[in-house]
Amino acid sequence: MPVWVRDYRWEQTPEAVYLAVPVRAARLRRADVFCTERYLKVNSPPFLFEAVLYAPIDDVRSTAKIENGSVFFTLYKKESALWESLVMENGDKEAMQRIREDAVCRVQENAKAEAEAKAAQKRDRRRFALDALMKLEEAERKRIEEQKEQERKKATEEIEKWKEQNEKQKKKQGIDQSHHENRKTLKKNKPENRGMRPSDGRTSSSNSVTGAKSSGNIFSEKLKEDGIPAPRPRGSIEINFTPRVFPTALRESRIPEEEEWLCKQAEARRMINADAAEMEDLKEEEKNPDWLKDKGNKLFEMGNYLAALHAYNLAIRISNQIPTLYLNRAACHLRLRNLHKAIEDSSKALDLLTPPVLDNAKARVKAHLRRGAAFCELELYAEGLQDYIAALKIDPTDKKIEEDAEKIRRIIQGND
After folding, report:
1. d(CA 64, CA 49)
2. What is the model's pLDDT at position 339?
3. pLDDT band for position 44 (50/70/90)?
4. What confidence tens digit (pLDDT) does each residue in 307-336 have?
5. Which residue, 6, 101, 123, 165, has fewest beta-carbon neighbours within 10 Å?
6. Residue 169 in contact with residue 215, Cβ under 8 Å?
7. How far is CA 87 from CA 6, 98, 103, 379, in A?
8. What residue ranges in 104-168 does DSSP mark as E strands?
9. Cis-peptide, bond into residue 247, ω within 30° of zero
């Protein structure tokens, strides 16, 4: 059952109210503070503060500051006036309940609108990122096309220069060859020397022939040298790869899902190792969840609820898919006044009792009744009535459930 905070302090001026709520909790979060136009709530289990204000405030300008385990409210009034008290005293219960429900509905609507605005902003950001990515890709494509065009022009110019050099070399070789043929023709047509002796004539003729041969060999070698093209110059081709300058699209990224999966795997391995170390000291029958369940049932019947709770806890650690264990542990929490834990175990049992069939109808009735009882103990009668109605739908012939549901209705209506 929650511990209601009554030792709050408040001061007021005609324009504002200053409220200090001490909550001796180890950890107080912003989500635990609830403030609307007529309703204030600070929920930090087991401590709970709730107030239906005397007059409406401007919840947009009002602020709440968490410091040293306390919440300091600065509430600006909509109308400048002094209040007789901070909260509505001796008011109509139905009106106060309606104010609570309106506050919750308003906060839900604001949260929904804020979520839609964030989703729209996220879509706009993704669209902007996609447009920027497309522009980067288009600019990169144009740059590559321009670079290809420049390389093509450069290659064309080099080919034209090579053709011109080749034509000039061929022309030079043709001129040298024609000059050599003219000189050879002149030597053949030159008259012999008549004043020489026969022997000298022979000698001269032989010398002339030898000279012609030697001169012909020199020119032929020169012609061969001129006919061989010059060796090509050495060089190297440099290849540059353009870097990828644009980021990967966000829709292709799976890093958050992978990190979440790895964290879950590490937590599961840690729990398994811890359980294995603790299970080594247990006996064989103590490792059987059915034996532990029977042991817990016997302890519960004897009134030893804390020992029964420990038995159910160990059974759930061994096998956490048996709904009966959660149902029995919820009953222990109810007897020990651990109401929030009773609600959690009943909800877990209902999650495991799926699909709803005739075989698990009785267990589902128990889960709804135990959760409804915990809600009613927390004075959350509307939620408790819903569970009793759900149990009555499963078993319409149970008069006791119908009577309890009618009592809760009268409490909500303020008749009891």
Report:
1. 14
2. 93
3. confident
4. 999 999 988 888 888 999 999 999 999 999
5. 6
6. no
7. 12, 15, 15, 19
8. none
9. no
Close Cβ partners of 17 (under 8 Å, ≥ 6 residues apart)? 10, 11, 57, 73, 74, 75, 77, 83, 86
Residue 245 buriedness (CB in 10 A; 0-12 / 13-18 / 19+): exposed
Alpha-carbon radius of gyration of the chain: 50
Give Cα 119 distance to the centre of its chain: 14
Q: Tell me the C-alpha distance between 36 and 111, whole Å.
A: 13
> What is the token pair recorded at 189?
């047509």
CA–CA separation, 340 and 374 (whole Å):
7
63-67, strands of its sheet edge to edge? 9-12, 16-22, 70-76, 63-67
- Measured CA to CA, the distance from residue 322 to residue 329 in angstroms comes to 12
Distance CA 196, CA 208 (A): 14
Tokens read off for 15 = 């324009």
Candidates 329, 323, 370; CA nearest to 349 is: 323
Two structure tokens written together for 96:
């106060």
Instruction: Give this prediction's pTM.
Output: 0.38
- Residue 21: strand, helix, or coil: strand
Q: What number of CA atoms fall less than 13 Å from residue 222's CA on the CB side?
A: 16
E-only strand ranges, 53-158: 63-67, 70-76
Report the phi/psi class of residue 233: left, alpha or beta, with left for phi > 0 and alpha for psi in -120 to 50: beta
355: preceding bond cis by omega (within 30 degrees): yes
pLDDT reported for residue 112: 86
Residue 79 confidence (pLDDT) above 80: yes
Whole-number Å distance between alpha carbons of 241 and 236: 16
Cβ count within 10 A of residue 136 = 13
Q: Tell me the C-alpha to C-alpha distance, in Å, between residue 172 and each of 167, 182, 196, 227, 244.
A: 9, 16, 42, 10, 52
